[in-house]
Amino acid sequence: MTSAIEKIWAEIDKNQDEVVELTRELVKIPSVNPKFQAEQGLNREADVQTLIQGQLKDAGFKTDRWDVFENRPNVTGEWDGSDEKSLILCGHIDVVPVGDASAWDRDPFGGQVDKGRVWGRGAVDMKGGVAACLAAANAIRRAGVELDGRLAIHSVVDEEAGGFGAMDLVKTRPLAKRAIVAEPTWGAVVPAEGGLSWVRVTIFGKQAHAGWRFNSIWPQPHTEGRIEPGVNAIELANRFLNALRDFEASRCRDNWHPLVPAGLATINPGVIRGGAGMGEDGNPAIMTNAAIISDVVTIDLDYKFMPDEDFEDVKAEFEAFVANFAAMDPWMRENPPKILWDLFDLNFPPMNTPIDHPLTQSLFERAGQI
């Protein structure tokens, strides 16, 4: 084993520019996730995967390629070996948009090398990691080392929009006993990761004309024939978000795990929509008329929890918080908010690999040799 490892390190040392050049090639092919920005020439995930598939074939991998979404393929490569010692190296090739390209100091898809770094969208997250996986396999092959276990490299799409490329792969293709995801960690070994679910909270009000707003917020001297007051869902949502911030803070203070950042259990309000009438998509139907007292607000939350937390317990805790919040308001007691878990089918279970696991221990040891 020691001899094999030394041979592989020697090959890596002899070919230090390999991972840099491959990263540059990958960065130069724009692969912006089309769910964020669909534009001619920007959404070239298929071209990136063609380059990676060619690299895998050159390294002797048996490859597989299939579309997860139209013209958005996953690619895998496998070397034969035992399942007992099987290992997956995984990475994604989609990237987020560049925003205002004129604000960049460099071409976001130039793959420029400067000051010891590769610059460009996706260089860190995470085409560099995919290139490192391929370079590691090439070093093993050049060293003439034959692995006992089956080695697979997975290159997936759509991670930035929720990981649906990886989810499709897990459902349809062979897995392994162990896996390493080559996301950037700046040299740290990360055996634990929190869970994540997207959840939508819908808050209901009572629609009315804004011209009668005074009737909702100020006592009127007459009661007979009075128009029934409206209830502004946007204002209820504002109160809910303030309460949610305190609830989030309590979760972050009371939950900790030694292998993840302090305060990981965050609840991010990522999207909010307010307006009138419920649309078929579960969001307000009218969001352009400020003269209507809103009766529907939807708040989409990115809800994280700790590696050692059970998802059912997490759900129950949040649902109790929402119920208690609604109980403080006469209107919401009768018209409680609605909670929708696993919004857009996005739900990631936590990972909590023991630090004494053989793979974890091996990574600790090898990381110290870099």
Provide mean pLDDT, rounded: 94
What class do helices, strands and sheet pairing give?
alpha+beta
Largest sheet: 6 strands, antiparallel
CATH class of the largest domain reads Alpha Beta
Low-confidence stretches: none
The CATH homologous superfamily name of the largest domain equals Zn peptidases
Straight-line distance between termini = 18 Å
Number of strands: 17
Describe the structure.
- The protein is of the alpha+beta class and 370 residues long.
- It folds into two domains: 2-191 and 353-367, Aminopeptidase (3-Layer(aba) Sandwich), CATH 3.40.630; 193-348, Alpha-Beta Plaits (2-Layer Sandwich), CATH 3.30.70.360.
- It is 34% helix and 25% strand.
- The strands form five sheets. Strands 9, 11, 12, 14, 15 and 16 form a six-stranded antiparallel sheet that branches. The chain has a five-stranded mixed sheet with strand order 1-2-6-3-7, sandwiched between helices. Strands 4-5 form a two-stranded antiparallel sheet.
- A hairpin with a 5-residue loop joins strand 11 (267-278) and strand 12.
- The two termini are 18 Å apart.
- The model has no long low-confidence stretch (mean pLDDT 94).
Please describe the topology of this protein:
Layout lengths: L1 H13 L1 H12 L17 H14 L3 E8 L2 E8 L2 E11 L19 E3 L2 E3 L3 H20 L6 E8 L7 H9 L5 E4 L10 E2 L1 E10 L3 E2 L3 H5 L15 H22 L12 E12 L5 E3 L5 E2 L2 E10 L5 H17 L2 H5 L3 E3 L6 E2 L2 E2 L5 H10 L3
Parallel strand pairs: 3-6, 3-7
Antiparallel strand pairs: 1-2, 2-6, 4-5, 8-17, 9-14, 9-15, 9-16, 10-13, 11-12, 11-14
Helix pairs in contact: 1-4, 2-4
